[in-house]
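Why do we care about 3D structure at all? Because function follows from shape, and shape follows, mostly, from sequence. That is the central idea of this module. The next example makes it concrete: a single protein chain, its amino acid sequence, and then its structure expressed as tokens.
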Amino acid sequence: MSFSITTWNINSVRLRMPIVEQFIVRRQPDILCLQEIKCQEPEFPLAPLKALGYEHIIIHGQKGYHGVAIASRIPLSEDHRQNYCNVGDARHISAIFERGSRRIRLHNFYVPAGGDEPDRAINPKFGHKLDFLEEMKALRADMPGVSSILVGDLNIAPLEHDVWSHKQLLKIVSHTPVETDGMKEVIAKGGWLDLMRQYTPEPEKIYTWWSYRAKDWEAANKGRRLDHIWSSPELGPFLDRIEVLKEARGWNQPSDHVPVTATFKF
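And the structure:
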């Protein structure tokens, strides 16, 4: 039995619904997780997704900022939204789905970007990001009777080959040692498996994000792996492939992130 799940920071779902539909028609994932939807629940474009077969949709929205959503072809239950850092941002949603006899808790995250200056003393946004990571360390993959998958825009490229230049980005937010060490601790303490790096080990580069600031993003190819798919260890052997759809960065009115899809064979 094949099963696929996609994560994509869409950077305004209402603006970019045409490319969401384009992607779905081409790839048809069983579950689509979106981040940075930038709308409240009543404004979310349900109709186009339902017309394409995604009858089960849960949304954690916020006016003009942040926001996450899960759209699924299969039923979702026990949805939950965690209020990280107790600031009321819509940055997390989770739900249970079932494949055969297996129950899986799916987490969809949008971790704070952290601003431009990697110093919490002068940049509160960076402090918020570090506090968010600290709270994520309590999230465990091994839950009794339930497997786990965690996806999302985590806004950190944790490994040397997750960025175009490790040395040049060590002082750039998303790849500073305090962030990368923090993410590695989230993975270790939670017992998570980094599926993208299981499928494509270092030193091969993986990028999922290319800045809007680049005049020719494709020629420069100064990317970072900011989008992630993790799981509890017992799901690792069932991973069939990971696809990073780089071409989506060149679509009409694109997000600066591209969709990442994991396919499992249970």
